[in-house]
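User: hey, got a sec? need DNA-binding NarL/FixJ family response regulator folded
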Amino acid sequence: MTDDPRVSLLIVDDHPVVRDGLRGMFESAPGFTVLGEAANGVEAVAKAGELDPDVILMDLRMPGGGGVDAIRELARGGTRAKVLVLTTYDTDSDTLPAIEAGATGYLLKDAPRDELFTAVRAAAQGRTVLSPAVATRLVSAVRAPRSPGEEPLSAREREVLALVARGTSNREIARDLFISEATVKTHLTHLYAKLGVNDRAAAVARAYERGILG
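Assistant: Yep! Here you go:
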């Protein structure tokens, strides 16, 4: 047994089997309490407000509301919970937006259980936890010199851009991605800046030039 105070958890993943596995893992270990589960980012924000967990284990790519948008919403809402991303994705388009949005740590799902337990305890104390692969990517991203218009787009920005390329309106994009029109406009503003353009048509053209689209 441990003398450490118990860490309360909210588990967020769209796969029930994964949620069940994580719940069983943490409930069988001393020092943890699982307060609840959520199947997407929208549910996660609502449950976090209801349950007030110490740590939120957050997957990233989930139908009905992704993890990065949820992390941003939690940060804007001033939640005290620390978000520890637990996902299978370690690409720049996943890791950088999650950290920038406010995630305390980022682990991959192949992490050993003891490493996961240690990471959750560290996150609860506000310490940053990164898997070695993610840490290497972040260091490389910070050190790599970038020319104007070469900053990578986030996964959500790529989704928005792909819909723009199909001629989809802001309202339709908001509906398809389950986000507000204001959020769509924010994503467009960010991707315009990253691509070094000023409008939708130029963004699509630049994206084809850089191989982002097709």
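Quick note: Strands lie at 7-12, 32-38, 55-58, 82-87, 105-108, 129-130. Let me know if you need anything else on DNA-binding NarL/FixJ family response regulator.
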